[in-house]
Amino acid sequence: MNIVLLEPEQTQSELWNIENPRQFQHLRQHLQLQVGDSLKVGIRQGLRYLTEVVALNETRIVVRPIETEAVPAKHPVHLILALPRPKVLRRMMMDAVTLGVERISLIHSYRVDKSYWQTPFLQQLDDYVTLGLEQAGDTIAPEIQLYKRFKPFVEDVLATLITEQRPAYVAHPYAEHVMPHAIQHPCIVVVGPEGGFIPYEIELLKKNGCQAVSLGNRILRTETAVPSILGRLFI
Amino acid sequence: MNIVLLEPEQTQSELWNIENPRQFQHLRQHLQLQVGDSLKVGIRQGLRYLTEVVALNETRIVVRPIETEAVPAKHPVHLILALPRPKVLRRMMMDAVTLGVERISLIHSYRVDKSYWQTPFLQQLDDYVTLGLEQAGDTIAPEIQLYKRFKPFVEDVLATLITEQRPAYVAHPYAEHVMPHAIQHPCIVVVGPEGGFIPYEIELLKKNGCQAVSLGNRILRTETAVPSILGRLFI
């Protein structure tokens, strides 16, 4: 947690209270805060501030904003992920948010177990976004959409998003071309499920304007591939 | 698991048995193997083969090597990691191995809890390496060393490894210069603990030849930083 994210309604007065148990406990455990210390605080979908601790007790920390700080810019990338298994969903969402993805679409694919769409973790996406923003020092949540049908998504949604200025790259271990690096333009990145997209899916993606690109001759887990791809694309 | 890794002593005869329960169960669960199917098998520290399934029953799969395949090359990077907390040690080691790191040193640092050095997970590093190799399709384990004292490591070990041809980069959020990208030379990458190196440590690293470099203005978790850095350095 590199900033504390507060809701706009928590920041209406001159002094702001940090009393959410998760945030309060984290600060208690990791920082030995005292009155007069500074603390970075962001307002969800708003500005980021350097604040000063003016009071603290057993249940809350009271801070006063001192000055605004820059909110880190996002990368102009729309990440499309085959819905990961519940166990890694949290980590992948947190990572994507921390890494500064502008938009995330979770989609179905042949190798996505149907049961994954029933996981209660899908109700917690907002919490994962908050954790990712607090890690990155960011305040602006990416847009998130869910698409439970692969073909309609690719043909009716994805195909309309791809332009010459915003190409789409599908990570595919056996592709002939390699993923570009240090790009200067917006893009769409598509990452398949564990085990990869099936050939029919790769063909449909290509037919609808995606470029299949490889990440070299090592096959990465999807949760490793996402930070690796983003680190490579946006330097 | 993109190859099955066997020990050299398991591959002395013409037919090889896959009967390790973890490997056997994984293949059972994820592949509907039948006699005649092909399967990628690697020999630890040796070659990699395309094999053919010649028999299978409830406890083992028997394969016959058909032809050798290329083992993916490693990246010429020595990764130095502040010992992560036990919960993320497995993932970080697997990721580093999958991503093709040549050598890994786990080191102490001020913000590494001393208890981390007692975790039983440190006895399982070889298992994590195996998982990472099987994911990547690699057969060659990286060298791994542990250094429980920071200062002697930096002064007596790290300082002697750094040359003009093999620079060392310490990921540090507040550094003035940025991490290079798409490099063509060997390097050393140093990644601190959660919460970062303390100023004394950064100074000692710099004094001993390391370059402090930033990853931009988003602060990444260490487990996210490692694939992101490697994806950026080696394209």
Structure description:
Chains A, B: One of its GO terms (biological process) is rRNA base methylation. Chains A, B: InterPro entries: Alpha/beta_knot_MTases (IPR029028), RsmE (IPR006700), RsmE_MTase_dom (IPR046886), tRNA_m1G_MTases_N (IPR029026). Chains A, B: Residues 74-231 form the Ribosomal RNA small subunit methyltransferase E methyltransferase domain. Two copies of one chain form a homodimer. Chain A contains six helices and twelve strands. Chain A has 235 residues and is α/β, with parallel strands linked by helices. Chain A folds into two domains: 4-69, Ribosomal Protein L25, Chain P, CATH 2.40.240; 75-233, SPOUT methyltransferase, trefoil knot domain (Alpha/beta knot), CATH 3.40.1280.10. In chain A, the strands form two sheets. A seven-stranded parallel beta sheet of chain A has the order 8-7-6-11-9-12-10, with helices on both faces. In chain A, helix 2 (86-98) runs parallel beside helix 3. The longest helix of chain A has 13 residues, at 86-98. The interface between A and B is medium-sized, with 35 and 34 residues.
Features:
homodimer, 235 residues, alpha/beta, Ribosomal Protein L25, Chain P, Alpha/beta knot, 2 domains, 7-stranded parallel beta sheet, 6 helices, elongated
Summarize the structure.
Chain A is α/β, with parallel strands linked by helices and 235 residues long. Chain A folds into two domains: 4-69, Ribosomal Protein L25, Chain P, CATH 2.40.240.20; 75-233, SPOUT methyltransferase, trefoil knot domain (Alpha/beta knot, 3-Layer(aba) Sandwich). Chain A has six helices and twelve strands.
